[in-house]
Design goal:
mainly beta; 8-stranded mixed β-sheet; 1 helix
Length: 145
């Protein structure tokens, strides 16, 4: 089964991990910002590469979000790290994320920081795409190996 989303991480620095987010079956490509890799620490690190189930997550704090759930979120190298899921939710900068991923339609410098733009609108489009599917999944890979 092809994943509904494919996140290809293409860059990283001390402050963020950058990616392209492809919507399967469409020509749409978005961008993502995530925190940098920090050994999969809960509320701090992006999650390991892998394939995850996507589950709708609505809360007062993060309405219209999606949770990436599955083996790997709790990383085998750090089994003592309690981490059940990682969210895809709207945000503009990595510092606003606690281990989650935020989509946007471009990457730009705004307010003195590099981040993604139009995150809420982008997340709504992703939500439309995923809501039409049964048991959607996301595949996360990197172009650097």
């Amino acid at each position: 089964m092809t994943a509904a989303l494919r996140l290809e991480r293409f860059g990283r620095d001390n402050d963020a991990t950058w990616g392209r987010l492809y919507l399967a079956g469409t020509s749409e490509v978005f961008f993502t910002v995530e925190p940098p890799w920090s050994y999969n620490r809960a509320f701090e690190s992006c999650i390991p590469h892998g394939t995850y189930d996507l589950v709708r997550h609505d809360s007062a704090e993060r309405p219209g979000s999606w949770a990436m759930v599955g083996y790997g979120v709790s990383h085998i190298e750090t089994p003592n790290v309690p981490r059940f899921a990682c969210l895809i939710h709207s945000a503009n900068w990595a510092y606003q994320l606690k281990g989650c991923a935020a989509p946007g339609d471009s990457i730009r410098w705004t307010s003195g920081r590099q981040g993604v733009t139009n995150s809420r609108v982008t997340l709504q489009r992703i939500d439309e795409h995923l809501s039409a599917l049964v048991s959607p999944r996301i595949e996360i890979v990197s172009s650097w190996g």
